[in-house]
Design brief:
- With 61 residues, this protein is α+β, with helices and mostly antiparallel strands.
- The protein contains one helix and three strands; from the N terminus they run E-E-E-H.
- The chain has a three-stranded antiparallel β-sheet with strand order 1-2-3, covered by helices on one side.
- The radius of gyration is 13 Å and the shape is globular.
């Protein structure tokens, strides 16, 4: 996925970072709301995604 846009939405106790790809595919990372700048929310979302990729899950499961 080639990233073309990143959006941050906050409200109702939740912060959502939306990564939009070239083919309009989207990856959303929803986090408990924090009083942090958008840049910090994007960085935190990227860290969460990196942590997820550390798991080697069998697709047959």
């Amino acid at each position: 996925m080639q990233l073309i846009e990143t959006n941050v939405h906050s409200g109702e106790g939740m912060t959502t970072v939306e990564f939009v790809g070239e083919g309009r595919e989207k990856v959303l990372v929803c986090m408990a709301a924090q009083d942090a700048p958008e840049e910090a929310a994007v960085t935190r979302a990227k860290v969460i995604m990196v942590q997820l990729t550390a798991f080697d899950i069998d697709p047959a499961q």
